[in-house]
Amino acid sequence: xxxxxxxxxxxxxxDELNPNDVERSLRYARDLEQGxxxxxxxxxxxxxxxxxxxxxxxxxxKLATELGMKLAQNGHPVITxxxxxxxxxxxxxxxxxxxxxxxxxxxxxxxxxINPYVTxxxxxxxxFARKVMLTFASKVYVFFPGGFGTMDEFSEILIxxxxxxxxxxxxxxxxxxxxxxLDKWYAEKMERQMHTIAKGDRKIYxxxxxxxxxxxxxxxxxxxxxxxxxxxNFSVNKSAI
Length: 241
Known about the structure:
The chain is of the alpha/beta class. It contains nine helices and seven strands. Strands 4-3-2-1-5-6-7 form a seven-stranded parallel beta sheet, with helices on both faces. α2 (about 20-40) packs parallel to α5 (about 125-135) and α3 (about 60-75) runs parallel beside α8 (about 210-220). The longest helix is centred in the first third of the chain and has 21 residues, at about 20-40. The radius of gyration is 19 Å and the shape is globular.
């Protein structure tokens, strides 16, 4: 048995955790372990986030399909949360172009099913484990308009980059008309009035309507192999995700 696992089990015994907490921690670990096993079967790609509620014929779903197709044509795996809306649109583009189309789905009370355009899929029990995998699996992050879930994912990755818990990788917000209000609030309220963020923090992301900028960023990073995940050395040195 791995020494780290042995030490962890010993610590659990020493802490005298409630049996329910032990069971809960094992479920957390299992979700993470299965996720890592899955994403280690493909090279780092581009994670695409956005609303599950947008219709297939909406402007942003059409853009997501176009982006998924362009990424696949350039050899980049496309990774989404596996659901409908923006996720399905991006997966569809990659699938139609013959690329790797990954869906990391989540168990929900309203039974969100994996969309039909994925070549690889996995279902998670916990949101946090799924977010770890959507982050760890990627070299570029793209956020289309979305709701609370999209904002949660955006904020999570933004703070990890801001605090040096992960490498600063390209992060794009697609849709100037949707995102410019939030960026303005960050600039006026958080940066200039309250000083709760630094001047350079807003440079972590870029707001764009140009999909080719995203393709160029992914191409500049290149195509790491399955064994060359960009987090391998970083996580050892800085205790990142």
